[in-house]
User: Fold this.
Amino acid sequence: SRASVGAGARDTAGLNACQHGAVTEKNLQFGPDERQRFVAAQSGLIEEFRPWAEEHYGADDGELVAHAESFLTWRFDYSNGNLADFDLDDAEEFLFDWVPAKSAAGPDDAAGMCRSIQAFAEWMAATGRLRGGIDRAARIMTGVDDMVDDLAEELDDKANFGMSKTMLSLELTRPDGSPLPDLVELMRSGEPIDELQALLDE
Assistant:
């Protein structure tokens, strides 16, 4: 049976009490030539999401927030640029298409990745930003709850790695002759995700 991160069972009825004034979908829709505006919006969303995540999801909020930021980056760079209108299919595409190929996350990060999507959807609904509101957030949270084991398997399968991850998993050296680290071992080492992602960007 699949593992569960548990957040899908949270009582989403409580979101009604904390909804704020809605930010329109148009305000969070970005075309491919609007990177500067996207970056500003992403920064504002993440800074607002961070304290909420700490309060509602606990001590691992740093990692949780980093994964949410990656989701927004994916939404702009690889999806349709609409930060206010995403659903369970979008969450699944991010988790199973982009994350295994591009992210420095390893198998042990699967639960945290799923939890991050759940938390971000919950927060977006709570602040009136998610199209479809509480009902859509609940569907995302419940659906993602069932994906942890499958995602861990995908993250452990080198066949899913994109070019950067594949190259870093080989025995290669930098121009100065120093060896590049084995990415798979690094992913299992507990190194901070931002340090691993920097290696993918070399």
In short: The mean pLDDT is 79. The radius of gyration is 17 Å. The chain is about 55% helix and 0% strand. The CA atoms of residues 27 and 84 lie 9 Å apart.
